Amino acid sequence: MHWLSLIASTALATASAADAQVAAPIAAAALADETVEVLQLQDELYSRMTVPVMINGQGPFNFMIDTGAQASVLSHALADRLQLTERESATLVGMASERRVETALIDEISFGSGIYRDGVAALVEGDNIGGADGILGLDSLQDRRVLIDFENRQMEVAHPGERQSNRGFDIVVRAQRVAGQLIIARAVIDGVRTAVIVDTGAQGSIGNAALERRLRSRRDNAAIRMTDINGVEALGAIRYARSLVMDEASINNFPVTFAESPTFAAMGLEDEPAMILGMSELRLFRRVAIDFASRRVLFDLPANTRLQETRGWGQL
């Protein structure tokens, strides 16, 4: 039996939270041209995004982009349709659970001009990933820059060896690489230094118990029920953070769900304050780029946003 430990942070929330607000510096210069693959995005049921992906020359199929998942995932229905019968088992770590799941061997995964061979994907129920056909995880995204353009509903994937300019982005934040994931280690939430994982597979932001203990203000707003990638439900409490500061980027007055999750332990972050930054907060920016090769996370402000206009937003 081949033991493969996978981390998939995908979580679907069944309760909505109020809008947050974003504050950041004056916009920088115009975007410089780059050689990239531009993929049209479709809004997925839970406000994340999907891109067209080919599997073993068949498709395209709708896959979510999950920068918080170590490995790619297929729905059982797609694996059966493609007759992927060479299967083994692994432990899949979700937001609420750890479960033994089947895995399938894939000869070829392609999106844009990128082709990845001899891959392994965990198999889950399609309902647990919002009805998508699968998830592209970090195994497909390493050494690339993934840019999500919310305004134009596009994703750009720059491949290794291509020029990666930071010009045109308002804010560039350094990150560390841990288990393949980019972690913003010097972020601060309400005065508490916090490790932040930018996770395009999570609907909203999720904090660990260590962060919850450190936050002085505990303003309960509502309970929330989440279903993770294994189909396991977890209850959490929504509390509002006054501010998240990542170098010059900041988000004010936004909801964080606190719930017991094995995901943080799998990343070695169970004993220090940590938070998964989800799509609800990322959408406050016009564009977000996750550059795995240079270990940078880049943010672009909404049009016409200025520091003097946003300073103090959401302060209670």
Automatic annotation (TrEMBL):
Keyword Hydrolase: yes
Matching InterPro entries: Peptidase_aspartic_dom_sf, Retropepsin-like_bacterial
Entry-linked CDD domains: retropepsin_like_bacteria (cd05483)
Cited Gene3D superfamilies: Acid Proteases (2.40.70.10)
Signal peptide range in chain numbering: 1-20
UniProt entry keywords in alphabetical sequence: Hydrolase, Signal
Domain of life of the native organism: Bacteria
EC code(s) of this entry: 3.4.23.-
Entry keyword annotation includes Lyase: no
SUPFAM superfamilies: Acid proteases (SSF50630)
GO molecular function, one term: hydrolase activity
Pfam families, per the entry: Asp_protease_2 (PF13650), gag-asp_proteas (PF13975)
Protein name: Retroviral-like aspartic protease family protein
